[in-house]
Amino acid sequence: MATTSLRPCGDFRTTYKADQYLLQTKWIGIWTFIAIGVLLLGPLVLDGYIISLLILIGIYGIAALGLNILVGMTGQISLGHAAFFGFGAFSSAWLNSTTGIPAILTIPLAGFMTTAIGMIFGIPAARIKGLYLAIATLASQFILQDFFARADWFSGGSSGSLADTVSLFGFAFDSDERYYYLVLFWTILSLVAVANMKRSRDGRALVAVRDHYLSAEIMGINLTKYRILAFGVSSFFAGLGGALFGHYLGYVSAEGFTILLSIQFLAMIIIGGLGSVMGTMLGAAFIVLLPQVMEALTSGMFAMFPETLATFSSGQAYIKEMSVGAAIILFLIFEPEGLAHRVKLIRQSWKLYPFSY
Amino acid sequence: MRRLLSTAVAVALASGLSPAALADSVFVGHLVDYTGPTGFVGKTYGPGVKDAIDYVNAHGGIDGTMIELEQVDYAYKVPEAIATYKRWTSRNNMVAMQGWGTADTEALITFVAKDKIPVWSASYSGHLTDPTGKNPNTEKPAPYNFFYGPSYSDGCRAMVQWAADDAKEKGIEKPKFLHTGDNHPYPNAPKQACAEYAEELGFEVLPPVVVPMAPGDFKAQCLSIKDSGANYAFIGNLGGSVVSLLASCGTVGTDVTYMANIWGGDYKTIEASNAQNYIFPSASPFWGAEAPGMELVRKIYEEGSSDKSEKPTHHYIRGICSAFYMVEAMKWAKANGGITGENIKQGMYATADWVPEGLEGVCVPSTWTAEDHRGTTIVSVNRGSAVDGKAQIEQIATVELPRRDDWIGY
């Protein structure tokens, strides 16, 4: 594991505080603001398809960030993340339609509602670990899914529930271009929040729980508190992402929040890099874009060589699905540390070229 | 973040590989599930739509306009369905869409209404039939959603109506009815509507039995059904789960008449589960039946690119109907101001009790109006049994349900 820092000569730290800055060097700061600027101008130049992909990446990225706090930072496996994501979507729609609180406020409120639910389901986590915890969270997935299907008053049961358009002071986020900014706002806020949490006392406590729970306890870290806290914070982001998803579609149905989506969330953080904030976004982008790229590639192949591939034409769907699976497996073999690590290596080699270290 | 953007741009370039649009053509997107959880029936319905459109293109298109059909297997994943839909609307200028399941159809209700793109789904949820939100139960009006065939609720009501007559014949005083299925929007869609109608007809409605959608050993559920004393059980699931349930109940030996949802009954299910006296609805004749329009269905199949190793199910034929209703509406649109989403929708309302040209006796005469998207309320009731491993299916009744106002969107 290479941990060479990217600092140019002469840029050294003399205090712990300075070592903890979010934006390590002037140039990282400049590039970050350029990137945000580019993202802000996105809708002016990109077409609807790309915008909608970016919205999905943002929404799933926020939810995956939550899972990364739980799995990557605290080391507690969860297979029920999609259910919390769904709970957030339903909560926001329900709050908005029953209490009349504007949707712009119910989105974060849904996050808090999901936090409460997440903490309740997190209680067993205070006592169990590993496989047992995986099964307990799997149960939460099914319990919540069952709840969505039955609780007509909350989720509309099998007919789903309506999520209103979000608006702010009369400005309605009713098109993809507009909604993009809402998602971008929450995405950046979530990224900064989680990055800050990682360098706080509580964030370090979570990492200690992950690395060695016994040592952590001996150091005075309250395991029960931090495990439940991890569940709560993780659920908050799941609920926030879910609420954004619900209002984006305008309609929430229990169909979309199955175990399949939970596994996709796990894939996002594993591919992106466990415990990495930026990696989570990269992983979300990877999972959202991969099927699209594969679709384009397979249909492009079939369009370019129709005669050669005629025998396979009925199998295009299978080829695509297999490629998606293969890409993920290859990733796990060749990039076990995740995309975030690869980005780090690229940046290093850029810095150090032509020398190896 | 910069990388994210460049990846997005890379995708944009990659999708440029898709074949250039044909000269005079309109684009239709087609979502299918071949590799996902509903692939069991997806693999037989999707090719029906595709073969039908290919046939139309090979025989002059829509009065000279070709249909550019792009089929995408979204494997029942909602995000993929949304992303694909967005690509079609922003890049391909889509005018209509052939959809598939409950998951994608419901996720897209708002988008298609906003973009004015009519959709023919293979999800027949009752709540898709209320275009104006007339019924107070309707959560969300679905003005651009169409489907061919009876809704799930009407299909179940027809089963119940048949069961009521059957119980009279058998002399059962107060027949007992129960619903089985996963606790999931699709099996649940007709649950309440059907139970209410069963009570109206004098059934005693028992508590539902939950049967997972994933295939497994369901002897426990079969024992519950047996112990409940039910005379008629409605099966809300589809595919492997139904096969498992029927096989398990065959082993347990329940004396219950099983009635299915339209996706839960076909010759493949009957043969795989060795079912006996299995009652299921349909909205078309079966493969091998004689009807004036079956000539065209056979031609479509022979010229089509679908897998010929097994004979098609009636889902394939419904796929053809779904595609042909869309094509006829497009023809009307072309003659009345051009093929746009809005005009195609109006084309669906142009005639009453209509069958696409050439499919007489195959598709049930249907009527859509701006107030009511229940295309048809006529349901064929069939009985199927496996005899020496081969399914034998006969039509035993045709139920014509009233078009009640309180049933719209429900």
UniProtKB/TrEMBL annotation, chain A:
Q: Which GO terms describe its cellular component?
A: plasma membrane
Principal subcellular localisation of the protein: membrane
Stretches that traverse the bilayer: 21-42, 48-70, 77-95, 101-123, 130-149, 179-197, 228-251, 257-277
The way this protein sits in the membrane is described as: Multi-pass membrane protein
Q: Which InterPro entries match?
A: ABC_transp_permease, LivM-like
The protein's location, in the record's own words, is:
Cell membrane
Under what name is this protein listed?
Branched-chain amino acid ABC transporter permease
Does the record bear Lipid biosynthesis in its keywords? no
Q: Which UniProt keywords apply?
A: Cell membrane, Membrane, Transmembrane, Transmembrane helix
Q: Which PANTHER family match?
A: ABC TRANSPORTER PERMEASE PROTEIN, HIGH-AFFINITY BRANCHED-CHAIN AMINO ACID TRANSPORT SYSTEM PERMEASE
Q: Name one GO molecular function term.
A: branched-chain amino acid transmembrane transporter activity
The lineage, from the top, is: Bacteria, Pseudomonadati, Pseudomonadota, Alphaproteobacteria, Hyphomicrobiales
Automatic annotation (TrEMBL), chain B:
Assigned keywords, A-Z: Amino-acid transport, Signal, Transport
Q: Which residues form the signal peptide?
A: 1-23
Q: Does the keyword Protein transport apply?
A: no
Q: Which GO terms describe its biological process?
A: amino acid transport
List residues of the Leucine-binding protein domain. Answer: 26-377
UniProt entry tagged with the keyword Membrane: no
User: InterPro entries attached here?
Assistant: BCAA_transport, Leu-bd, Peripla_BP_I
Q: Which Pfam families match?
A: Peripla_BP_6
Which domain of life does the UniProt lineage start with?
Bacteria
Q: Which CDD domains match?
A: PBP1_ABC_ligand_binding-like (cd06334)
| PANTHER family listed in its UniProt record | BLR7848 PROTEIN, LEUCINE-SPECIFIC-BINDING PROTEIN
Q: Which family does it belong to?
A: Belongs to the leucine-binding protein family.
Q: What name does this protein carry?
A: ABC transporter substrate-binding protein
**Lineage of the species this protein comes from:** Bacteria, Pseudomonadati, Pseudomonadota, Alphaproteobacteria, Hyphomicrobiales
